[in-house]
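Curious: why these numbers?
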Amino acid sequence: MDFAEGIEKILDMSFPKEKGTVRGLINSYAREFSENKKSIIEGKVPAWPVRLAISFICSRSGRWAALGIKAREQLEGRNLMDLLKERELNSFLDNVYTRHGRAYKESKEKISQFLTALEGLNNELKGWPKNERVKRFEQKIEKILETQAHIGRKGRDNILRDCGFLNYIPIDVHEQRFLLRTGIFHKYASLTESDPTDYDHLANAMSRFSKNELNELEVNGTRLSEAPGLVDLIIWHFSQEKTEKEISLTICAKDPKCEKCPLKNLCLFAKLHS
């Protein structure tokens, strides 16, 4: 068995508490990301990545997870650009934060800056030639997320991936652990990018792994060799301990369940501890 076969076995695994397989969930992500990219091509900023960006602002790029969840709940059904009105923004933030402290004030300023810049981008997007919209949008939105929304690197990569740019890989501790345990990082890190604590080194190793090992695998018509951002999601759901919707296999988690792992015959860690 090779890694492609192992990843395919993971895709066919069922979640323990929720109906459906990993493949079904990744397919739904891929369809959603594809629709978001189509919106950009048609000259419209997609709504979901904007909601995600606002939730990242409120939760300090995901560090305060509970606030991020509350923000996403409060954004449901809202016209996002209405938050440019102070009364609407105050109403939203009052439902996210329990007090008007420093975090409240900082989020208010960042959301205002972000949506003002986004409004300008939306107007520009419609005026660009259709064949240039995707590339120019990618360049502009990344800068806005960094300089106006002040969202960290992982959060920016997450939002860009959700916009349909599947080369972005929001690496966190789960993917890092998986890449190191399996030995994928050891094989695909270059001599000049071999630091397992470096975000870029991990992301680049993931890209090389996807390109070299997963050329025959597709999700929703997209080759995983060209979509390391989707591979990231497969690994995340395989390795995450728990999510609010119980959509994790919890196999390559903090306490690994090597006996249940489809990759155990390939995995460096499993071989050393068998």
